[in-house]
Amino acid sequence: MATPLKTRIAVPRSRDNSVDGIKYNRSGSKRNNFEMFAWLYMRVSGVLLIVLIFGHLFVNLMMGDGVHAIDFGFVGGKWANPFWQTWDLIMLWLAMIHGTNGVRTVIDDYAEKDRTRFWLKTLLFLASGFILLVGTLVIFTFSPCPTGADPSLVPSFCPAP
């Protein structure tokens, strides 16, 4: 009768977190609660995003003429109201940070080398920061009423020149 093959599995939260020679980035030297707060953020932001996204979809697709009414004037009219600017800004920030945190977790789980993990996360944070910056600027600097434009082309809510 053959003896069963024994597999060594590291004890969770132990100092020896290596399995098959791979050292995972889960050392006990970091004594902060970042991962707990990141986990909690994912849950809270996920619930808030459900409300924000379905509210966004309802207003854009179900009210008025639906998808056929979405054009430059529709977006300009929405973003002329500070309520919708704030709604879209919160949705942008929550979604980007939520997604970035999820990809950060995937990088931590699958990138084996510290150097690879560092560069992937650096690229991720730079890209996310750039998108947040540009998205925020677009929301707050968007002008649906350009000066000097043909009055027949500007939305009806713009003041006459």
Mean pLDDT: 83
CATH architecture of the domain at 34-141: Up-down Bundle
- The largest sheet has its strands arranged as 1-2
The H-and-E topology, N to C, reads as: EEHHHH
Principal-axis shape equals: elongated
Structural class, by secondary structure, is mainly alpha
Helix content: 55-70%
What are the low-pLDDT stretches, counting only 5+ consecutive residues below 50?
none
Count of strand segments? 2
- Remind me, CATH topology of the domain at 34-141? 3 helical TM bundles of succinate and fumarate reductases
The number of helical runs is 4
CATH superfamily of the domain at 34-141: Fumarate reductase/succinate dehydrogenase, transmembrane subunit
Query: What does the radius of gyration come to?
Result: 24 Å
Distance between the termini: 94 Å
- CATH top-level class of the domain at 34-141: Mainly Alpha
The major sheet is characterized as: 2 strands, antiparallel
> Which strand-content bin applies to the residues?
under 5%
How would you describe this structure to a colleague?
It is a single chain. It is elongated, with a radius of gyration of 24 Å. Strands 1-2 form a two-stranded antiparallel ribbon. The chain has a domain at 34-141: 3 helical TM bundles of succinate and fumarate reductases (Up-down Bundle). The termini are far apart. α1 crosses α3 (82-110) and α3 packs antiparallel against α4. β1 and β2 (22-23) form a beta hairpin. The chain has four helices and two strands, in the order ββαααα. By secondary structure, it is mostly helical. Pfam families: Sdh_cyt. InterPro entries: SQR/QFR_C/D, SuccDH_FuR_B_TM-su.
